[in-house]
Design a protein that fits this description.
Shape: rod-shaped
Keywords: ATP-binding, Cell membrane, Membrane, Nucleotide-binding, Transmembrane, Transmembrane helix
Number of strands: 12
Number of domains: 3
GO cellular component, one term: plasma membrane
Membrane topology: Multi-pass membrane protein
Family: Belongs to the CpsC/CapA family.
Number of helices: 18
CATH architecture of the largest domain: 3-Layer(aba) Sandwich
Organism: Micromonospora olivasterospora
Order of helices and strands: HHEHHHEEHEHHEHEHEHHHEEHHEHEHEH
Radius of gyration: 43 Å
Largest sheet: 8 strands, mixed
Length: 489
Amino acid sequence: MDVRDYLRAVRRGWWLVLLAVLVSLGVAGLVTVRTQPKYVASVTFFVTTPNQGVSEAYQGSIFMQQRVKSYADLLQSDRLAQSVVAKSPLGLTAEEVQSRITAATIPDTVMLRGTVTDTDATRALRLTEAIAARFVELVRAVETPAEGRAAAIKVEVVSGPRVSSTPVSPQPLRNFLLGALAGLLVGVALAVLRARLDTRLRDAVALQRVTGSPLLGEIPFDPAARTAPLIVGEAATSARAEAIRKLRTNLRFVDVNEPARVIAVTSALQGEGKTTLSCNLAIALAEAGWRVALVDADLRRPKVAEYLGLEASVGLTDVLLGDVNVGDVVQRWGDKSLLVLPSGSSPPNPSELLGSKAMADLLLVLRESADIVVIDTAPLRNVTDGVVVAVQADGALLVSAHGRTDRGQVTAAAQALQSVSVRLLGCVLNMAKLGRAETYQYESYRVIVPPAPPAVPMDRASAAAARGAGYRGREQAGAPTQELTRLPR
């Protein structure tokens, strides 16, 4: 992962960062409230050698600086604590007194500072006063020679004892700042870890990388697509509709030397929006003036006729079985140059039917009758129907939904196409979550769009008549001759 990947991971996991910061602030607040206030009292001692000559000043200073270091340990010793408890009763044991004392030397000086930390400011001051008196006595006793001569070292109090007027802990500002910083670091780490462990495709760069094909379009997520999947009427001015038109343009120029006229639209899994994309792509191509034929070759879960509002009882399956002629069951959609061939009845052997010679002959007829043939196929990871159809097309368009399919599934789908030498025209990231800057605001042009054209479906009586008129008998050998009038421009 590079820096941009990390930033992208943090942006996607912003809620983890926010949650971690809030939790850390809550913990910091709880610690601040539950922590008992503590006060600090301090006293400073000066250590010197009496009757010291000038010539001995330098050597004596070096000696005293080394000596003061040992006095820091003496200030925290058991002997001093026991002396304080014995002569200045404060309701504390020697161990409690010893735990409250901290000693530190002042660098490059012969001064020693002692501090007492206690939850009671008055007791902290009294304890410091007692320590100051007992420590001077203790040093005098330790440094006095046995012969009764004067002590070679003298300790005096030069500052204090004094106690702080405000508690030194807790410090709310510091606690909250540290809590926020800790939460931020933890949140960023969790967001990056989540991104590393999450193998689902969430951006176009990753989709291009795993498929090894160009990105032909990013279709933004549109909540209205659930109830109005087609880019007609008011939806024709949406960002989703403009993204479909951009896909139309990219698809036509993906290879100008060898343009694809028969395009199989497929996906790795069910529910990635391939059928909606097939219908909208066919509508967009027809709007541009192309003669388009849309074929529903997903014989297991057909949806094209449902989305377009057409009769679905007779269609592709019946044509391939030789029951009807394609010219009798193909249906014109609206007033555009778009013909739709629904799936028809559900067969028991979809893969064998789609891979038959009748299917190859049908595609030849459609290729001669239309400029572009769009075929909606079954998902690649569930069944082999999609691969069987894609082999007979000029190329395949692989659709992946944002955050639904993981990299392994998309890679396997692309390899399934490449293993049978299918030309992968490109990939499409569907239901993408794009920012405002990335979404083309087509509505700002205030384009006046006519209402959606009414479909011209085949009613059930006509479908039954077509089935009867076109029936040739399944016992006859060979595929029936297909006839389809060319679509006008």
